[in-house]
Amino acid sequence: MKKALLIALVTIGTQQLANAQDFKEGFVQEELSMQKYDKDPEAHAVFLNEFGNARIDITNDDHVRLIYDYHAKIKILDSKGLENGTIQIPVHNSDDVADEITDIKGSTYYTDDNGLMQKIDLDPKKVFQVKDYKYGGTVKFALPGLRSGCVIEFRYKLISPFWDSFHRWEFQDNIPKIHSQYEVHIPGFWTFNAALKGSLKLSKTSSELERECFTSHGAKSDCSHLMYAMNDIPAFVEEDYMTSAKNFLSAIDFELVEWMNPYTSVKTVVSKEWKDIDRQLKIDENFGSQLKRKDLMKERMAPIIAGKTTDIDKAQAIYSYLQKWYKWNDYIGIASSNGIKRAMEAHTGSIGDINLSLITALNACGINTEAVLLSTRDHGNINTLYPVLSDFNYVVAKANIDGNSYYLDASDPLLSFGLLQLKCLNDKGRVISLDKPSYWVELSGLQKSNSTRSLDLTLLENGKIKGSITNYYTGYEAYKKRKAIKKFNSVDEYIEDLDAKLPKIKILKSNISNLDSLNMPLGETLEVEIDAFDNMNKSQLVFNPFFWNKITTNPFKLAERDYPVDWGMASDERLLLTMHLPSQFIVETPPQNAAFALPNNGGMFATNYDNQGDTFTVSNITRFTKGIYSSNEYPYLKELYNKIILTEKADMVFKKK
Questions:
Q1: How much is the pLDDT for 386?
Q2: Which CATH architecture has domain 448-656?
Q3: Given 12, 15, 116, 245, which is the most exposed site by the fewest CB atoms within 10 A?
C-alpha cells in the first residue's frame, strides 16, 4: 500500500519535464456539453482537471514559507453532485503563526435556457473561515449559481509557516478524476522522503534540477523539481468497518529527513531513531516530568488503596477513583496540557492529563505501568519505519500485573477495567516507560465483544406470545449497551424508548442488572407480550425470532474492496429461543437450518431448529474470530452477510392442527 519513490530528493538526476504546467483556465464547450463520465456512468460529479504546485521559498516578509497553489475544475453531472460545489480548505496555526489563504478565485459556467453559455464569478465576501479547534480551522466557500450540468472552477494559494509538513497530495477523492497532477520544488537545503500510498499507479513522473531557485541573503541553492500525475482515477468509495480513509487513498506523502539552515549551515537531522524519541519524551516537561511525580500521587492514592492486599485490587480501585474524579475536557493528545497537579485540582483535563495521572498513580503504588502512545482510527495509521511523534494523538496506560497486561483509559466513566474504546484499537501502539527502551504492541486483538440473547416464550390460544427475554452483554458489547442506557435520564426512560422501537412487542416488566458494576456482565431481563397476528392476514400467526437488531441490508456492497474490513475486535453473538405451543397449534413454516463458515477459522454463522412435541428451539450463532479481515477475505464476508439476511428475514408461521 506504500511505495518509496525517492529517498533523498536533492540527489535526483536531471530530466526534461513533460507537460509540467498548470492547465488552461476558462470555458470549454465540450466540458459543458458532457452528460456523463463514460468510465463511471454512475458518478454524480467528476474532476475534469486538477493541478497543484508546492515550493519552499522566501516570501515578501523575508520568512521561509511553504507556498502551495491549487487549481481545479469539476463537472457537476446531476443534483447529487451539487455538494461538490462547496469547497473546504483546512488551515492550521500554532500560538504565534498561522496558515494564510489568499488569491481565492472561482467561477461557475452553465448553459441558460436560450442555449447560451453563462459565467458567474465567486464574490470574495462569500468566503468564510471558521475555527474548528485551538490549532485548526477551515476556509469555506460555495461556488455561485450551482445547477446540474454546470462546470465549476476555482483556485487558491496557501502560504504556510509549517514548511516541515510538506503538503500531501491526494490523487483520489470521493468522485472520480480524469487528470490530477502535482509539482514540487524543494531547495537543496531540505531533504524529504516521498512515498506513494494506495493501490493506484502513477501515469507519469519526472524530475529536473532547477538552478539557483532559492536565494536569500547570499544563500543560494538549486531545487529538485518533481512532477507526479495520474489519469482516469476512480472514486474512493468508503464502506462500513474501516479506519481513516487517508490510510488507503492513493496519495503522495512527504516526510522531512533533515535540513540545513541557509544562513548558518547548521544541519538538523529530523528523522531520528526511537532511542532519540525515548530520551526526548523522558525529559519533556509535559510527559516524562509528569510521570516522575510519584510523590504527588502516592499521597493522594494512599486512602484509595487502604485495605487492598493484591495489585489487581489496588489497580482497579485507583482506576475507578480517577474515572470518577476526572471529567474529560474533549481535548486529546499524548502530553499533559497543564500538568497533572493542576488537572487533579480542577477535576478536569485532556486525555494526556487524565491518563498520565493514572500511569503515575499506579506506579506510585508499586504497580508497574507504562504509557502507550497510539493513533486513533480517524487519525490514521502510524509510520513504523521511522519515528514521527505527530503520528500519535492519544495515550493510554498499560498496567502489568501478575504476568498480564491491562490497557486502561480513565477518561470514560463507562469503560470497564482493561477495556479501550473502539477508536483506540488501531494497528499498533508504542509503549514508553522511564526505565527501558520503547517497543511496539498490537492493539487490534486486545478485546472482544460478546452478547447472548435467551428467549423463553409461550404462544397463547388467543394469538398472543408471552414470556421473557434475557440479554447478557460482556466486553465491548456491555460498554456500548451501558452507554446507550446512560444517554437517558433514567432506566425507565430507556425502557420506554425501547418499547417504542420494538414493533408489535409490549414490555410488561423490566430489570437491568450490573449497570454500574462495570467489571460484571450487564444483564437485561424483559417480560414481554408479542402480537403474533399477521397485519396482512389476521387469521395467520407469524413470529420472527430475529426481531431484535435484525440485519436487513448487507454493509458490504462493493464488487471488490482494496482495503481491509476492520471492526477492531473479535465478536460472538448468540441467540437461544425456546417456544412453548398450545396443544392445538403446530409450526407450519419453521426457520431453515443454515451454516456458513469463513475460511481459515475466520468465523461462522449457523442457525439450528429443533422441534420436540409442543416445544421447539431455535439456536443461532454469529462469530467473527478476528478484528481485521484482508481484502482477499472480503467476498466471503459479503456472502456470510447475504446468508444472515436471508435467514433472518424469514418469518415463522403457526397454525391450528
A1: 78
A2: Sandwich (2.60)
A3: 116
